[in-house]
Amino acid sequence: MNENIEPKTSGNMNRVQRYLQRQPLLSLLPVVLLFLIMLSSLTLLSDATQNSERFERLYLQLLVINIIGMLIFILLISLRIARFIGDFRKNAIGSRLALRLVTMFLLVSIVPVSAVYYFSLQFLEKGIDSWFDVRIEQALQDALNLSRNSMDLRIKQLIKETSTVVNELRKSKKYHVTHLTSLHRKSDSTELTLMTANGRTIASSTLDGTDILPQKPNDAILMQVRQGYNYVGLEPNQDGQLIIRVVSLITADNTFNEPRILQALYTLPKRTSTLLDSVNDSFAYYNEMVYLRGPLKNSFTLTLSLVLLLTLLTAIWVALFSSQRLVEPIRVLALGTRAVAAGDYNQQLPLTSYDEFGTLVNSFNDMTRKIAQARDEVSNSQQQIEKERAYLRAVLGGLTSGVLTFDDRYRVRTVNTTARQILEVDFEPLMGKHIALLGKRNEHMHDFSHEMRQQFEQQTRNWQIQITIFTTRGRKVLMCHGTRLAERRRGGSGYVLVIDDITGLLQAQRDAAWSEVARRLAHEIKNPLTPIQLAAERMRHRYLDTLSSADGQLLDRSTHTIIQQVQAMEEMVKAFSDYAYTPKLQLAKLDLNQLIDDVLELYRGNTKVTFKQQLAPELGELQGDKGRLRQLLHNLIKNGVEAVATQADGQISITTVRHGEYPNGYIELTIDDNGPGIPETLLKQLFDPYVTNKPKGTGLGLAIVKKIIEEHGGIVTAHNRPQGGAHMALRLPLHYNAPLPEDPIRQQPPTQLESE
After folding, report:
1. 651, exposed or middle or buried, with CB in 10 Å at 0-12, 13-18, 19+?
2. What is the pTM of this model?
């Protein structure tokens, strides 16, 4: 481990040392130069803002230069920020401290600069607004409105006067030049012109004799007048003096056979024209100044914002640069500490300064030298311990028993391979976990973990217990030996649990015992039964006809009773022989639901019992011996029918459920009835041979059921339902391996027993 870490750490130390040896001025020069250029450019930009001529000539160029400089500055800062973020994401040494330093520097610089910027903008806004007096603007607006109102009154008077001329023309029924001239002299107009609807001049009169041709209106005015709308407009004449042009339509009547157009021109006094021009020019100039107020504010605001941006960028760059320089000595020390933590006790840090950091580096180097000396001493002891641990693992791995160890808080410490195979549990996620978690994560280990915890809590020095579990490979009977370890010097103790799978051993012992019992019954009971039956039949046949009627009846009843009891004893011996006989299973895939239907078909003729089926349609196929399972179903259904025989509404419910997938899953078969239930005194020994509460029962039906279930690697349980009746639950694995090796005694057929 140390060999892999030392080159990496040494490489980091060399890189840091080379970095510290570089001159920081080399990295500062480009940034300082760029800062000075931008500062000069901003100064020129500020001067250009105050000079309109220079503003138009230099403002755009200086603005572009500043923007380019800002972009370059932002690029340089972005590179440093990207490097800074990269170090932070990699959790580089000193990156978090550098982040705090940068944050502190930025807060110290940004907050006051932002405050100055805000108040500067407010001062600039109010200062420029104070240049423009609102009262003057209102006075100019009022003067303009007054001049417009006066002009409107004058125009109305002129329109009225023109209308009077039109009426005079209608009354006199004359439209020659002489009459028009007389009307002209009576009015204030400088020119009267009578025209046709197309604009052709009929007569014209003017005060200025030099004007030979009248000032005719344009086509747009003529079109407006022809449509019935009079025209009034203020416009300059050829001399630049303002005139008012009034054009009216004279509709056709008795005087005029066709429409006529009368144009009257009125010249404004020079004083009035001068005043109007003065008011309009003053107002236009003031509006121009108001219009330029916004761009002026924007220019000053932009200049001030660029100064602020330059200040902020400089503060950010200085913060990044300064934090990196301040953190580097701490990073050197942290790299050295990490190297020591990784096992490189020969690490010596470079001495880069003679201040407090230098003193700390010298102390660190002294510490690593002393630790390196102690490491060699510990290494020898550790190697010896590792050899002993390897020897212990080899011993545990070679045992045929499962071995588990727990600490004083019932947490799993070690598990050998045999224990994993017996319990069929993946202990990798359970190492260091409480034993209760073993039952929570593995359903088949719930009872096991609960029982083991109870034994641990009793604090017994040595104990032994037999437990039955149902795994994916079937039923297993485990013999568990537990020992409480002595307390260690550091406090606390532990437990050792040794597990042996005795399923096969118990099965072989039981089969051998019952086979021996069956053989003895065949010799002791079966053989005398045949001579007894033959002797009774011979006596009946020989003496029945020779005796009197009363004696003959007595002999007939007696011999009939002897023969009947002999046959009953033969049936009992045959049933017991069937139980002791364990033939080789003929395993094949079968449909358990179909097998249940076939067996129930034999009982459907019983009208006193109602059968309810809840068979899972997705049950799938089961690997088992069809004949043995058929016998199992017959025994269970027959017991149920006999249990509900006394009930008026006898019911038997059969349910199948599949748990898991092939080949690791299992099928659960339950049979419920509403009979009187199982006597409490028989529950614990219900599946033992010769246990029954029936007057004529042999006590072997449920024993055979348990035997068949165990042959298929399953498990069977029974209890009484709360609402009354018995509940039988069977679990059969979907896939089961071949049974135990054949035994000559166990495989002896019943015919041989009977023949003996």
Report:
1. middle
2. 0.41
